Every structure is written in structure tokens, then in C-alpha cells.
Amino acid sequence: MNQKGKISYAKYGYIFSIPFIVAYLIFSLYPTLYTAIIGFTDLRGVNKTSWKFLPDFFANYKDVFNMPLFKLSLKNTIKLWVCNFVPQLSLALLLSAWFTNRRTKIPGEGVFKVLFYMPNIITSATVAILFAALFGYPMGPVNDLLKRFLGESFPGIWFMNSKSAAQGIIIFIQTWMWYGYTMIIIISGVLGISPDIFEAADIDGANGWQVFWKITIPNIKTILLFTLVTSLIGGLNMFDIPYLLVSQSGPDNATLTTNVLIYMQAFMGGYIYNRASAMSMIMFLIIVICSAVLFYIMRDKDEAAMKKMLKKEAKAKKLAAKGVN
Q1: Mean pLDDT of 225-247
Q2: Rounded-to-integer distance, Cα 295 and Cα 175, Å
Q3: Beta pairing partners, 53
Q4: What is the pLDDT of the chain when averaged over all its residues?
Q5: How far apart are the C-alpha atoms of 297 and 274, rounded to whole Å?
Q6: pLDDT of residue 302
Q7: Which DSSP letter does residue 323 get?
Q8: 10 Å Cβ neighbour count for 96?
């Protein structure tokens, strides 16, 4: 009980958080630290648990940077993420502007939102099996349609044996699965903007395009930053769709991503845990650096300038106080 005789319930919050903390320490923090450590060791091979640190501490990292396959996988990962995120964000912004337009009311708006979001709740394995069947060769719905339009003599297209086609399908799947989620996040940000701002814009005679670019976008900058960072993390950790859709990472490793390569290094073939760990830590650092750059680029410059000015004023007051004393 506190001084006023009232019961303090703060301790129960700590008690209820214990299961999460324990689960986080066991299943997240410990594996992360262990992965970081074995990147500097000689741990490799089936059922091997003993290891020692290498004389050349960064030998595994040097090996990774000298691997042409890692460079290719990183290039593929960045390409697949950028090419699916740009249309994903564009489509989400367009739909968000449509659904939050105060001048027009969309009939059945809730139904459209549900339909657009539904692909996000389908498991990646299901989506991969679905699209593998759709673009199957020589028999598949897409090839059947092409034969109907182009004639029975059309031989069909082996989509999964074409670099550009396989990458294009993955890009489409990622866009299709995630644009609804991005749309919902952006809509929630738009609905959080004060209606008074939009009313003032209407009074001033601003059109929809001006309202969107001059009011909506600046006021959801934080939401856009969240979307960018989460998409960056998810995109650079892309694994399920590329791994399940195309066997053996497609033609000439066209769909090989860094996470697929890490999985192959660690659990297929030579069980090279130390090199896979080094790759994981490199990707972790890339994500941290890219996220920091995004935070810096999308920071509120006015707020940053205000904080800097307040710090200068506080420092000047301290110096003045010391001078008086």
C-alpha cells in the first residue's frame, strides 16, 4: 500500500510480463546471441556441438564477402523487395486516398477493405502452391488460357524456367499479399489526422490532389516511416515464397535470396553453421544501417531544429549561471 492507503497495482504489471520476458530470453535473445557468437567459430557439421574461436576472428565474414553466391543473393533480395514495395506502397496510397476521401462515399467500403486485406491472412505455403499450380508447365490454368487465345499449336511457357518470369511472379505475389496490410496501416494514420485541417482546406478551395499531397502525406510521415522500416525488414528477410515457389532457387539462382542461402548453408549440404551465422549478422547490420538512414531522412526537420535550439538555450543558461556564480 502507498502513503495514501491505496493499493498499488504496479507490481501486477511486472508479474504479468514475466512469461513474455522469459519466452523472449529463451526463444529470441539467446538464439540471437548464440548466432552472433558462432559466426566467429569453426562450428560446422552434422550433430557437432563443440566449437572454438578461429585464430582469424573475422575469417567467416571474409569468406562470405568473397562468395559470388552471397553477392548474387543480396542483389536478388534487394531487387525483389524494391520492385514489390514501390507498386505496393503506390497502390496502398491510392486506395487509402480513395477510402478516406471526405467528398465521396464509397458504397460497400468495408467489404472492399476486407477483400483487399484477405491475401495477407493466407499462409505463404498456400500461396506458393496456388501460384505454382496456376503457372504450371506444360499444363496449368495460365497456359490453358494462352492456348485458348493463341491456338492449340502454342507450346506453352515454362514460367519457372525463365529468370524474369520467376522473379516477376514473386514480385507480384509479394505485392498482392501485402498491399492490403499497408493500405490498412495508412488508412489508420489518415483517420488520426484532425478533421479541422481538412475542413480548413475545403474552405480554402483546395482540390483532392492538393489535400492529399499538402496535408495527408506530411501528417502521416510517421506511419510511412513505420511502413518503410517494416517492409525493409520483411523484404530483406524474404524466404517463404522464393523457397517454396521455385525449386532449387529457379534458373541460375534467379530467385535465390539471402535467407534462402542462409538456410541452405546451415541446414542443407555441409551444415556450415558458422558461415550461415556470419551471413545472418551481415544482413542484421545491413537492416540496422538502412533503418537508421530511413529514420534520418524522414525525421521531422522542424522538430529537430527546435530541439537543437532548446539545447543551445539550456547550455547558454548553464554557462550564464556559472558566470554569475
Answers
A1: 92
A2: 24
A3: 41
A4: 87
A5: 35
A6: 66
A7: H
A8: 24
